[in-house]
Design a protein that fits this description.
Elements: H1 5-14, H2 20-31, H3 38-45, H4 52-67, E1 70-80, H5 105-118, E2 122-127, H6 135-147, E3 158-162, H7 168-176, E4 182-183, H8 191-197, H9 205-209, H10 211-217, E5 223-226, H11 234-252, E6 258-260, H12 279-292, E7 297-300, H13 306-315, E8 319-321, H14 349-358, E9 362-364, H15 368-371, H16 376-385, H17 388-406, H18 410-426, H19 430-444
Parallel strand pairs: 1-2, 1-8, 1-9, 2-3, 4-5, 5-6, 6-7, 7-8
Helix pairs in contact: 1-3, 1-11, 2-4, 3-11, 3-12, 4-12, 5-6, 11-12, 12-13, 14-18, 17-18, 17-19
The protein binds S-adenosylmethionine (SAM) and iron/sulfur cluster.
S-adenosylmethionine binds near residues 184 and 267.
């Protein structure tokens, strides 16, 4: 069984808000960065709002020890709003009579150029499930994006994919064309709620929950899980995500590369009884995930407002989208109209980069591990021995320098250069410091795409 709902229900029913000593013990164990059992995580989920700062500071410490001060940035690229499914929460649901849009390959290249011009290097492809969007179309889209060049020869260097659950054969096709992470969200792990909220092929809970196994069997090393917060009890979803991560690790020898934490947002023609998750609950969910699955990346989108994102970056999030538009063809267009859902962070990439710098985080557009074959188990091994720090921080610095040289506003460049200087002075051993300094100089002289 992938996720044992009965065990999760029991863990939640038995859990009590930990007292002072119990909480200290649990947080001390979490600080060892070996993860937590479901029952331990369940107790942390009942920490009251008054004790949440203790939870947040433990999560922040773990985040800092594993990820340093990096924050990876990316953008979603919506290919098509055609969808046969009638998911109760989504603006693309089949019974929404709004006109649909599927990007041609020419339009995909044009959207890619807009994203490249902003400074993005990493994309997440999104599409509904429909005969209009078969795997061949996604494959052609990926080839088009990788081969599209901006005016200075810049390109998208990693494409992650978030499309409907499919067959092993189709996952092989995605692998062959060089996808990074394949992400698929279970939406809700509660089978009963899942079956009520979905109509169409996606209503098959088993097809959805077993999809990542097929993806791994097809050779995709990096897979990402997620739950849409707001569909069901948030504590249940957190434990289910932990259980799913533990299952993938047991079954395939490596856990998920990422956990996404989308939270329900209003969408056109969507009207259903959601289970609202408050900001404090949502942040507690993020903190407990960070402590329970310490080496898995965590992704937050522009569904969330800047202030919440700021706090979430501190306590667990390692990757964030920026300047997103959730409508096919929406980049570079004035005003979005046919979106999948509303976003709450409307800042430009440059504004996000500046705010991230001011917060003391190093914006990263790095794609080095994936392009050097450090994926799946190899990546996790490096991450667990801390070796990734010597690679990731210098690589983040190199990609950030490219951003500052090619895309940043004057204010961001000034703030960013100060941060880079500080980072370069503190990074790794003496040899790494020297090599990084020399590569930063080479970027200034016009070379690009240097990585460790
Ligand atoms: N159609 C594919 C699927 O359903 O797996 C691709 C992903 S869809 C474009 C991306 C994700 O958006 C969904 O998995 C869902 O979690 C999320 N989503 C859908 N409607 C949403 C809403 N109203 N608010 C926030 N997130 C939403
Ligand atoms: Fe279609 Fe995905 Fe939206 Fe469901 S969540 S309606 S499958 S695009």
């Amino acid at each position: 069984m992938i996720v044992d709902e009965t065990r999760i229900e029991k863990a939640l029913a038995d859990a009590e808000p930990p007292r002072e000593a119990g909480l200290a013990k649990l947080l001390a164990k979490a600080r060892e960065k070996k993860g937590l059992e479901l029952e331990e995580a369940a107790a942390l989920l009942f920490v009251g709002a008054s004790d949440s700062e203790k939870l947040f500071s433990a999560a922040a410490a773990v985040k800092k020890e594993i990820y340093g001060s990096r924050l990876v940035l990316f953008a979603p690229l919506y290919l098509s709003s055609y969808c046969v499914n009638d998911c109760a929460y989504c603006g693309f649901h089949a019974s929404n009579p709004a006109p649909r849009k599927k990007l041609s390959l020419g339009e995909i290249a044009a959207q890619t150029r807009v994203l490249e011009a902003m400074g993005h290097k990493r994309l997440l492809l999104e599409a509904g499930e429909h005969a209009e969007n078969p795997v061949d179309y996604v494959v052609d889209a990926i080839k088009t994006i990788y081969s599209t060049r901006g005016p200075r020869g810049e390109s998208i260097r990693r494409i992650n994919v978030n499309v409907a659950a499919t067959t092993k054969e189709n996952y092989v096709r995605l692998k062959e064309v060089g996808i990074g992470t394949y992400q698929l969200f279970q939406e809700t792990y509660c089978r009963e709620a899942y079956e009520k909220l979905h109509r169409g092929p996606k209503a098959d809970y088993e097809r959805q929950i077993t999809a990542l196994d097929r993806a791994v069997e097809a050779g995709i090393d990096d897979v990402g899980i997620g739950a849409l917060f707001g569909l069901h009890d948030w504590r249940f979803e957190v434990l289910a995500l932990i259980a799913h991560a533990q299952y993938l690790e047991r079954k395939h020898g490596v856990g998920p590369h990422t956990i996404s934490v989308p939270r329900f947002q209003p969408a056109q023609t969507v009207c259903f009884n959601s289970s609202p998750v408050s900001d404090n609950e949502f942040l507690r969910a993020i903190a407990v995930l960070r402590l329970s699955v310490p080496y898995t990346g965590m992704i937050l989108s522009t569904r969330e407002a800047p202030a919440l994102r700021h706090k979430a970056f501190e306590i667990g999030i390692s990757q964030a989208s920026a300047a997103s538009v959730t409508e096919p063809g929406g980049y570079g267009k004035a005003g979005a109209s046919a979106t999948q859902f509303e976003v709450s962070d409307h800042r430009s990439l440059d504004e996000v980069v500046l705010a991230v710098c001011k917060q003391g985080f190093l914006p990263s557009f790095c794609t080095a591990c994936y392009r050097s074959g450090r994926t799946g188990c190899d990546f996790m091994e490096l991450a667990k021995t801390g070796a990734i720090q010597d690679l990731c921080t210098p690589n983040a610095a190199l990609t950030f320098k490219e951003y500052l040289l090619d895309h940043a506003s004057l204010e961001t460049r000034k703030e960013g250069e100060t941060l880079l200087e500080k980072t370069a002075g503190n990074v790794g051993c003496a040899a790494t410091k020297q090599e990084l300094a020399s590569r930063l100089k080479r970027l200034e002289k016009g070379e690009r795409d240097l990585f460790f």
